[in-house]
Amino acid sequence: MVEISPQPVSSHQPSKPPSDAKLRALIGPAWNRYQNALKGLTGLDLIPEYYRYGPSGGWTLRFEVDHMTGCALYLAKSLIGLIAIEPRSEAMLEAGTRGDDQLMRLVKAAPQRGKTRWVQMALRSDEDVRRFLTLAEAKLKARDEDGAATDTLSHTPHRQTTAVGPSRKRSDTPPRRSAVRRSSRG
């Protein structure tokens, strides 16, 4: 089991993680896929933190790098991953995922705000988890090659690094949580 960072890094304070028993009950048959995603994302040096959004919003596990959200998992019976893919990451995916047309169709079909595509995918199989990890790897690789440039993260700041803090443009804002919740039903 991966240990979760207890330190708060956001205006929304991380929550105490649910017990394994509660988490298993919540996730149900998606437990092994959740464990695989958790292991893969922490293996990319992303720091996991649990957030509770109340009874209707449920639990989210955010994965952070340099005090920014790299991606997130919505924890429910239908495990859902969300990641912002910027043009540089998308170009790397196109070059590096030859033969995985389904992944590229998923990215191209994702809602777009500005230049950022907000990829939301149900992790229904081990193959879906692998694809989600591929997205996270491309995002981090683009970030590393750009020298941690600002266009390679989700622009959800968790700790201000200057007196003013990072700027946020409308295109940098993820879709509203209610829109994500509605579209994940099925």
Q: Which terms would index this structure?
A:
single chain, 186 residues, alpha+beta, Yope Regulator, Chain: A, six-stranded antiparallel sheet, 7 helices, globular
Question: In what order do the strands lie side by side in the largest sheet?
Answer: 1-2-3-4-6-5
CATH C-level class is Alpha Beta
On the 0-100 scale, what is the average pLDDT? 75
Uncertain residue ranges:
1-11, 149-186
Shape assignment: globular
Helical residues, percent: 25-40%
CATH topology: Yope Regulator, Chain: A
The computed structural class is: alpha+beta
Total count of domains: 1
Series of secondary-structure elements, N-terminal to C-terminal: HHEHEEEHHEEHH
Q: What Rg, in angstroms, do the CA atoms define?
A: 16 Å
Q: Quickly give the CATH architecture.
A: 2-Layer Sandwich
User: What about the largest sheet?
Assistant: 6 strands, antiparallel
How many strands in all? Answer: 6
Terminal CA distance:
30 Å
Strand content: 15-25%
Continuous helix count: 7
Structure description:
- 38% of the residues lie in helices and 19% in strands.
- With 186 residues, it is of the alpha+beta class.
- The protein has a single domain, classed as Yope Regulator, Chain: A.
- β3 and β4 (80-85) form a beta hairpin.
- The chain is globular and about 40 Å long.
How are the elements arranged and paired?
Blueprint: H1 20-27, H2 31-42, E1 47-52, H3 54-57, E2 59-65, E3 68-75, E4 80-85, H4 87-96, H5 101-109, E5 112-113, E6 116-122, H6 126-145, H7 177-183
Antiparallel strand pairs: 1-2, 2-3, 3-4, 4-6, 5-6
